[in-house]
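To whoever picks this up:

The parser on our side crashed when reading a file containing two proteins. I've narrowed it down to the boundary between the first structure block and the second sequence. Both blocks are reproduced below exactly, byte for byte. First block:
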Amino acid sequence: MSKQKAVSETPPSPVYIFRGHVEQINSLEFIENNRYLISGDAGGNVIIWDMISRRSKIQFKAHNDGILSIVKFKDKLISHGRDNTLHVWAFGQLSNAKDESIKEESIKSEISLTDMNFGKDSVLIQVFYVEINDKRDELFIAVPSAKGSSGIDIWNLTNQKLIVSSIGLDQNRKTGYCMAIKIFPNNNFQNIQSVTKNYLILAAYENGSVSLWSITININDSVSNEDNVVVEKLWDRKEHGESVLSIDLSPNKQFAMSTSGDNKIVKYNFDEGFREEPLIQSTTVKYAGVAEVKIRSDGKIFATAGWDTMCVIAVIFYKTIYNELWVSNFQLIIQNFLRKRIRVFSSKSLKPLAILSYHRESVYALAFSCILPLDEQDHDKSIEEEKDLGSEERIEKHYLVGGGKDQRISLWEIY
């Protein structure tokens, strides 16, 4: 499929199916120039898959409850669980492990954050680094606030201190829970003295709204208290009639996508300075409940996943029209219409391009492989680390993976 058509006439098939989880899959992430795939499930288990051999490289239990998210950030692997803890792992320990049966006790988290008083509803986190000077940077996270789930707290993981709390906290409870967060540096921010850094937080809420917040951090002093942080709300848009379930940001930071419990997909086109309200594009799909949206690294396409509810209507229609074939084709019809779709769209026009049908239960996690120009790839690793990770074997294919309730991960190659 070299050209983007309206909807693919020939339904594609998955390239491969990863089997290894025994619980619902909640998180997927490609890492190390797509050399590995990380998956996390509802039982707290993590599997790191080798994308060349397509086998499990290592499995370990990261949490006592379900994995909410697991990401790699620089040399750290960060996992967040429903057990209300966040673990920061030294990734080298995992990547150098060769034995699939390696004992859990041999993998120790570098930092185990159990005393940071995350709210019980802090189900989504965003990780970012603040560069203090040429020799030092500090690791931060943004999470739903412990004081109220409509607010956002920012923590410094380096010293485990709260930097700013309750960003956007709504005492009147009109916005409801903060459902999703994306944080990114504002590269257009100008500061002559270079003592402040500006970050933008895109936050989605239970009432269907999306807001953009500006966070300016003074790095001249130790980044350890709210006096060094200035918070400003730039804009707010309510485009959904139901809770926003997922948001994603394009790699070039020019637009974002949101999906919700309704059947609407919304695109937010940012201005250069991010301060004006975004230009809105939207489209609708036939069935409500779009739980996940992901934008590919080139920004040209995006994918959504959730659940479809067309089985009963379709079977009744089929039985009415083709009653004589009912018995012999009943199983085929059920299998066909029970499959949960991953849908692929054009980012520019929002037109549907393909429907990927494999999963028979709801899909909760998606991930695209990241294809970057050579000058943007990670060149910070030592020669020894590069050799250990096998990162010289970069995978330059446009892969998409999906996983969910059926405990399987489907691998697709499209466009």
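<<boundary where parser fails>>
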Amino acid sequence: MWNQSDQETKRSSPLRPRTRNELVGEFSMKRLTSRPSGHWCWTFGLAFAFLGFSACRKSTPVDEVSIGESGVALQAREVPAIELAWPQWRGPDMDGRAGDATPPTTWDQSTNIAWQADIPGRGHSSPIVIGDQVVLGTADDAKQQQMLVSYDLGSGQEKWRRVIHEGNFPSAREVHHKATNANGTPASDGRLIVTAFLNQERIFVTAVDLNGEVVWQTDVGAFASKFGYAPSPVLYQSFVILAADSFGGGYLVALDLETGEIAWRRSRGDASSYSSPMIASVGGMDQLLISGGDRVASYDPATGEPRWESSAIAEATCGTIVTSGDRIFASGGYPDKQTACFSATGEELWSDRTALYEPSMVTNGTSLFGVTDNGVAMCWSNEDGRVQWKERLGSNFSGSPVLAGGNVYVSDLSGNHYVFSASGDDYQLISKNRLGSDCYASPAVLADSLLLRIGFGEGGSRKERLVKITQRP
């Protein structure tokens, strides 16, 4: 269980974000030399990458900030004026569950396709849905541009495109070959859209309005990149919270959604990890939960103060925690492998040596579902961790599953899209659909539709498209 260690030096820090006027000139910055893209997590057969790494470790000490020091108070969030069907990574509750949605279970290039839209550049950012628009992050390596792009939900027509950064990308050796420079998924409260990018060796959080105009941008801290930056922001009342775990000095940080001011920043040690935090009410209190750094940890999302830690999982993880009732589920990673269940206070209730490294899991309340990176679909009992079934699907997986209409939807890296029953009895394949060449991102789910970011083609001819899948007459 938790044993807090204070390894970082608390220092004063400039908290004020840059305003719209101060940012006007920053979106036509000089271009630098382009470089090959890569992916935010890696296949850890390359364990030798750790050898000799300590000789070139870059220290980026964390300036911790408390709520008392910042003076930024948490406020209740106003009810949005527009529908937020899928407003952030893994949906409204960041758990991959889509309520009563019943999207199609079969599709291909000529079946149940409402529209397809070209995506500039490359990214693993999943789409979000805000009212009548679909928004995602992407990066054009040739132009060295990191951007947000909005599409019309009904037609797929591009509504706007906002370049957030131009130039100053990480070097090729600082991003894994499978990674991209736009891995995190944006988040929206219905008024602003917030995204985070690694640029200039730092993490910048940027908010734009629903027309793509920049409202504020804040440099939240340095980031020593080992294989790139992956986490997505999560919204909590008037705060936007994100993680930046790196070998130089990792941290969690919360910003005021309206102004971009830093409310709190909490050091998390010096392990490079890639998981997004999530927030759930567990044990009668809101808990900010994250894995990585050889632990599962809980924080108070209002203040950043630690609640508990449990030694578990692995140094590096990518998946996002999921919860059900008062149970917390996590999986990963490298170099250790573990899937485990914890109580609301961090007690380990059961453990399995199976690891889902890149994909997250999803639960229907009684069973826990996931697909390993090398293509084995798994189902555990939430209660005791008993493996209820497992089935080899083949190929490799990076994207995370979603649960909709009593089915699990998940895509592999070879253009196959699986739908199987969310049943604890046995593996029941509903359909195996073929579209595109790969799918690194995770679906957004609407009442009767899916939105998928899919790669088409190979090598230099590969292009990405946003595809809306809807039941057609």
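After patching the parser it read the second block fine. The chain is about 0% helix and 40% strand. Residues 1-15, 24-55 have pLDDT under 50 and may be disordered.
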